[in-house]
Specification:
- By secondary structure, this protein is an alpha+beta fold.
- It has 2 domains: about 250 residues, 2-methylcitrate dehydratase PrpD (Orthogonal Bundle), CATH 1.10.4100.10; about 140 residues, 2-methylcitrate dehydratase PrpD (60s Ribosomal Protein L30, Chain: A, 2-Layer Sandwich).
- Helix content is about 45%, strand content about 10%.
- A 4-stranded mixed β-sheet has the order 7-6-8-9. Strands 1-5 form a two-stranded antiparallel ribbon. Strands 3-4 form a two-stranded antiparallel sheet.
- β3 and β4 form a beta hairpin.
- The two termini are about 45 Å apart.
- One of its GO terms (molecular function) is lyase activity.
- Belongs to the PrpD family.
Amino acid sequence: MQMHPVKLHPSKAMLPREEQLAWKIAGVAADKVAVQKDVQEMIINRIIDNASVAIAAINRRPVVSARAMALGHPRKGGATIFGLSNAKGFSPEWAAWANGTAVRELDMHDTFLAADYSHPGDNIPPILAVAQTMEKSGRDLIRGLATGYEIQIDLVRAICLHEHRVDHIAHLCPSAAAGIGALLGLKQEVIFQAVQQALHVSVSFRQSRKGEISSWKAFAPAHAGKLAVEAVDRAMRGEGAPSPIYEGEDSVIGWVLSGRTEADKHGRAAAYEPVYYQVPLPGPGEAKRAIMDSYTKEHSAEYQSQALIDLAFRMREQIQDLEDIERIVIHTSHHTHYVIGTGANDPQKMDPKASRETLDHSIMYIFAVALQDGRWHHVDSYAPRRAGRADTVRLWHKIETTEDPEWTRKYHSRDPEELAFGGRVEIFFKDGTRLVDELGVANAHPNGARPFGREDYINKFRTLTDGIISAREANRFLEVVQDLPRLQAGELHLVNVALPAGTLTEGKPGIF
């Protein structure tokens, strides 16, 4: 990997494009280096993973709405949409919108956490939609997805969006554009313009994941995917983009991220902050392996809760009566405490009438239910009746989080053997005794007790789609997707999952 310093430059500096981050990202995308065998296999795993959670969410309201909008944009030979027949095609940006929403709705697919947050599997819907529409092969798709994962994960390693209250899709849209460029074999110049356009149009704010969290949490990554498809389309037609989009005087770094002093932002000075983002990218001819550093979810909840759910399952075995608990303190990282813990200061995270989207961002709720039930279910664990149970509310309101500097250090460690997203839990009982345990990574994590392999992804698919699709369709999809490298041009429409006729819920009427 090569490290690239990225900072603000005044317009008069005339920063050469060869020194701009977007150009370097485009260079990685344009590099036709072979995709290694284990990376290919992991890409297949993640396509299976996406299909699992998308079908499980297929008739939830946001997914129904997104699909209904996409149905207004049919295209012969276009992209497929989850739930519909493989023979039906739609405009790729709208297929990316519908499928991206389905994948994201349950918050149960893959994740990568470093300087910022990400769900790199969000790259799959837009890149696959373009691959289907442009009649690309399985190998083309694999190359595009390896690139999308690489760019998003490398940006997440280096540039923190959250500290500036910017949503993580600002890294997703450029990565999807780069992945589409790699898929199509576009020239570096074209990908460069597409990446810049993608970033320019995709900066939005963290309020979508704070307070009263709405269905936009599921729509946001799908919107980024749709914008990425449109950005590449414009760039292919010769249209340019705001440049330099990362380093320019009025760029994203300049006015949204770390780049200017506060005095400069208020017009009182003309000083630039001496801040460099050090962005790692593969060098020329270097394999794109970032997907191997990401990890999926066994439980349908925010990733920082995965290890704590497993820890709750373990600790409950040592508790005779949960009513004997006086209080629970979760010692964890800065991000966990301030995003899904009591440090967020969101009263909604303690409200039994809160939305599902809010509850899956409340570690207090999640830990209480996991401790009581000893299981986690993507529907049952969030049901309003489940959240409103009196004993659950009592336990839930006894839980607090606190930041522990050591867990924060582990959260940001660059040593993969030390990296941890869990915490240490202290349970205090009314009789003065105490139970303490800790867990650094989820059981399903690559360093966990039971790392996910191909059979686990297949089992997740069969479990989440059981009763929704036929056994024949499940078997067909799994056979096709595991043969992805051998799929020929024009065969990628087979990488879709259809429901039996008449089982898809129809959406409310709108404009489209």
